[in-house]
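Weekly puzzle thread! Below is a chain. First person to post its structure in token form gets bragging rights.
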Amino acid sequence: MKKHNVFLLSLGCSKNTVDSERLMAQAEASGITFTELAEEADIIIINTCGFIEDAKEESISETLAAIEKKNEGVIQRVYVMGCLSELYRQELHEEMPEVDGFFGTRELSEVLAAIGAEYREELYDRRTLLTPSHYAYLKIAEGCNRSCSFCSIPKIRGRYISQPPEQLLREAALLKASGVKELNVIAQDISLYGYDLQGKTLLNNLVLHLSDMAFDWIRLFYAYPVNFPLEVIDTMRERENICNYLDIPLQHCNTRILQSMNRGINKKDTVRLIETIRDKNPDIRLRTTMIAGYPGESREEFEELLQFVEETRFDRLGCFPYCHEEHAPSYAFQETLSAEEKRGRVEELMELQETVAEETNRIFEGKEIKVLIDEIEGDTALGRTEYDAPEVDNECILTFEHTSATAGSFCMAKINDSTAYELHGTVI
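Winning reply:
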């Protein structure tokens, strides 16, 4: 039977990336070959994102481009999988009949069957990495039990399901053996890890076991502010290979808006949580995300958010305009701000954060710090500190005239200068 050449385009978040990596490992075990270029394939698979409008538009645009290649005879078949298919399968089928199959977020075996491959349960732990070989993501849970008003993830991904610790440790061991040095622990919500398995948090226990496996860096992403097990912060402080870094999306600070968002926390408790985390680990760097322009957000409430960001001094922060998603509960609310007004608030908040980031980065000037090099460009090394996650955070731009440097290796660097989002220095 002819084995296909497949081009896989993985869009969206790191959780999607893990899904694509599982698909590739399973397909390769059945003799499928994946190509670097779409023109070299006879099948295109697009793993879509459907979280916000921009992501939907990108997914649709890439699907239309694949259909055009099919119509031109460059490829034979097009398959679309993932979040967008989960939400809009019927509509997409009607609008794009040229697509040979649409698959949701929980149909890996069906995608494999469509391309002539077999799903094998014993290969579940295996992945073909789409990231550089020195870092990878470990997805510890699927789905989400929260009911944030602005979010459609529970509808897309289903209820929260923790991956068994023993399975995660097997998967982590395979990643370690393949040369992964930085393990990024992810889920839609790591705070709830283990509750569905044993009725209690298992996050700290998992982090301890991962730390014992001697990864150089372990990084934690997407901690919901409610139910986060604070003993993890103690472990982070005590274990050298757990990065002093936590991604904890807060979305807002105003109590009325937090209540409307159904976040389960108010401003007072949010402030107390951040203070407790920083008291437990003074060296921690916090990343968060905010939403500007939520339905009903007044100018006064937005200014309260500005003041909160200025006073709290997050080390890393992203802000997004509120998206009126039809599959999210807040779609029932009346939008009160135009797209232009929402963008304006995002820009205002990010200008403030840029000033904060410039000041917080300045403390690195004149210091020597450990850096993981991601890539080499000529005589320049591009890397990150333990306080910076791949793709989203600050970059270290280093020269190495009198020493060597290679991608995927660690080095000590002397920081000479800084900007809001960059550190500049030399490899020692």
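Puzzle host: Confirmed. Bonus trivia for everyone else. The chain has a mean pLDDT of 95.
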